[in-house]
Design a protein that fits this description.
alpha/beta; PyrdxlP-dep_Trfase; PyrdxlP-dep_Trfase_major; transferase; AON_synthase_class-II; globular; 15 helices; single chain
């Protein structure tokens, strides 16, 4: 190859240019030092918590004094990468979440692709919420099963919003019972997997899991309905000591498998599939994302162990309380802002109902503009645009953390109001345009905003 651009690079360049013209080009960025984090998934602020760091370092030092440890495993679990700590950790994770067994994966993505890629057998069906994570979709593509979506968080037909082209979960399951393979479904001869998330990462809403479980058991009484719950965005903060939604609702014995990940509220990395011992053994034999990858080394296993020990002894209680209070206060401030200005919903909208999680979407047809303005004011938020979210639902994804303060939230809301006022002033003269526009304001000091939202600020 010469240094000149190849034909393939030209093809890639054309595709990238097209994406940039539509304001959809993704780029890697670095966070400025000192910027206030309203973007990461570390909802409990554990990754930088002094007590967690101290406990982790103590564990490393203790292990080093007892003969040292390897930085990496240097092999897959099936070859030379398995360790006593890995198996002990799996047993502890299973017990913490009230599951029969657990199997570690290097990430939630690998857990989902491994699980969904091999669990369904030929002829089986995976029925999934339309908004399940990309990793679930990739796993389903690797599987030998037929896939059917249902309308997001809709269990009954009456739940489906007007205009949706999808059916509810109950309608999809009933359709399977009446379809060409209906006899096999009714007899329990065909497996139906149901894929949902506990908390959805883009909207922050919680699945109606109890209703989902009841619906599946009602339509599939032969117990051939296997529910898989991705607890990625609920692990660590939701439920007693952060055990997740399934445990909070007491559904451990009615959910077939759970995926808990450790790179969000837990503040480290990795994931575990909670399942039966037989399913665990099956995954060890057939999950390609486990078989053909290097296992986690001691430092990462020790980090996971440290966080579980911390949460399991009740140390997270003050963090949970702080996070819940911040969620409530933040929504009140945003609602006051919307009520004061009554912006057109395509410009700015927040959900009327209080948030169910630390994830609060700020819907806007100018999400990039809003995010850039907030970043210039010293607050890290990210625009989320199509195709990551459906067309017409671009938003700035606001993530709250236990370490955020109400003062920081107030100042962020002031920055949002400043942007909103500038957009409304401009639109009164030129008319609303849905394409994101770069803000014209210059960078100000954090908290500098001449516009007040309400007396609540």
């Amino acid at each position: 190859m010469t240094n000149s651009e190849s034909a393939l690079d030209k093809t890639y360049g054309s595709l990238l240019a097209r994406r940039e013209r539509h304001n959809r080009l993704r780029r890697l960025t670095l966070r400025d030092a000192g910027i206030v984090d309203f973007s990461s998934n570390g909802y409990l602020s554990l990754s930088g918590h002094p007590d967690i760091q101290s406990r982790y370092i103590s564990l490393l030092q203790s292990s080093s004094s007892q003969g040292g440890f390897a930085l990496g495993s240097c092999g897959s679990r099936l070859l030379d990468g398995n360790t006593v700590l890995a198996e002990t950790l799996e047993s502890g994770i299973a017990a913490f979440h009230g599951a029969p067994a657990a199997l570690l994966f290097n990430s939630g993505f690998e857990a989902n692709t491994g699980l969904f890629g091999c669990a369904p057998q030929p002829g089986d069906v995976v029925v999934h919420d339309e908004l399940v994570h990309a990793s679930v979709h990739d796993g389903m593509r690797l599987s030998r099963a037929r896939t059917l979506p249902f309308a997001h968080n809709c269990v009954k037909g009456a739940d489906v919003p007007t205009g949706s082209t999808l059916q509810s979960l109950g309608e999809v399951l009933e359709g399977l019972r009446r379809g060409k393979d209906g006899d096999e479904v009714a007899r329990g001869a065909k497996n139906i997997f149901i894929a949902v998330e506990a908390v959805y990462s883009m909207d922050g809403d919680v699945a109606p899991l109890r209703s989902i479980v009841d619906c599946v058991e009602s339509h599939l009484p032969r117990k051939n309905g296997y529910i898989i719950v991705d607890e990625a965005h609920s692990t660590g903060w939701l439920g007693e000591q952060g055990r997740g939604l399934v445990s909070q609702l007491g559904l451990e014995d009615r959910v077939w498998a759970r995926v808990h990940t450790f790179g969000k509220a837990m503040g480290c990395a990795g994931a575990a599939v909670l399942c039966s011992p037989t399913t665990r053994s099956y995954l060890i034999n057939y999950a390609r994302s486990l078989i053909y990858t290097t296992a986690m080394g001691f430092p990462m296993l020790a980090a996971i162990q440290t966080v579980y020990d911390y949460l399991g002894t009740g140390n997270g209680a003050p963090l949970f309380k702080s996070l819940m209070s911040l969620m409530e206060e933040t929504h009140q401030l945003l609602a006051a802002l919307s009520e004061k200005h009554s912006p057109p919903p395509q410009l700015f909208r927040v959900n009327a109902a209080p948030p169910e999680s630390p994830i609060i979407p700020l819907f806007s047809g100018r999400a990039r503009s809003l995010a850039t303005h907030c970043q210039r004011r010293g607050y890290m938020v990210r625009p989320i645009v199509a195709p990551t979210v459906p067309e017409g639902t671009d938003r700035v994804r606001l993530c709250l953390h236990a370490a955020n303060t109400i003062a920081e939230v107030r100042e962020l809301c002031l920055a949002i109001e400043e942007w909103l006022q500038s957009q409304l002033d401009g639109d009164s003269a030129t008319g609303f345009e849905e394409m994101p526009q770069e803000p014209t304001v210059t960078r100000a000091k954090i908290g500098e905003a001449p516009i007040s939202i309400s007396s609540k600020l």
